[in-house]
């Protein structure tokens, strides 16, 4: 067994970075700056251009789940009648928001939801009612003919542009301030720089041994989700890139002896991240996941509206399954994958619905072993870590 794991130093700065952002948000609200709670994938680059404080609720739920303090909030959401089969991230935020406790993240002045997460678009109505705040629903159109963000048809691009214009008007009316074109372009420049740095880091992870695995990827994705359009995101990824470059130069891998290279498909289990490290005890490294693809696109600051439309309409987990299949093929080839671990979050219909097709494609085209794990992202009350590890043991035997 191999147990000597080399964690990235920068990865340890994610929680301090998040705490600092939340502290700034609380201070900003006291000074009259608007706070927006968001549900999966409204255009964060645009919101930062307004210089308001957007709060990505799913990420905050994941932090609470990591600390295993979510049970009271889940119970409260259950009591409100919210179904236990729904996404636990949203159930946590409902229970947390209406708890009456002093909140670590500031109370919202308004809420923005996008239909990329169809369950989330209505999930937060209890929050809207509790705080008596305005609510904006961003209707991202499906594009059934595209395989990636570059191939989006003109009609959905134009429709999304109108949605962005309505969102801008909505925020301007609440904040009593206008969106400055120069600030919007600056936000897009910063978002592009941060995204390009992440893509450069991902390219380095193709090296053998892998300098940065999924354990560190899961944490260091935070700026992609919450901070795109800020200098904080750029600065964080500049430091991360230097550390990964240094590891590649010195041939330092995640573990001392890398025997197998695994791909993780799906979101990360927040309350038992040790299950990711468990693979490493047997010389297997989770070298890459697909979850960052949610937030990646080639941004063009000179054409911000079209650029954002292409990004969010073309998101790999929204619309046609062919986008997910193409991404999975590319990752298996580029990262020289020996096996694939798929995690099905039972509260997410979009992702679970395509798992069988992805698994069949992997078996047919690559013949590498796959392991399909099921469970919840944040609700640990019925989780059996021993059973999970037993299934991993059986899977790893197939790699020999």
Salient structural properties:
50% helix; alpha/beta; Rossmann fold; 400 residues; four-stranded parallel β-sheet
Structure, briefly:
The protein is α/β, with parallel strands linked by helices and 400 residues long. It has a domain at 11-179: Rossmann fold.
* Beta-strand percentage range: 5-15%
Shape: globular
- Class based on secondary structure composition and strand pairing: alpha/beta
Q: Quickly give the CATH architecture of the domain at 11-179.
A: 3-Layer(aba) Sandwich
Count of helical stretches: 18
Strand order of the largest sheet: 2-1-3-4
What is the CA-CA span between the terminal residues?
14 Å
* CATH topology value of the domain at 11-179: Rossmann fold
Radius of gyration: 21 Å
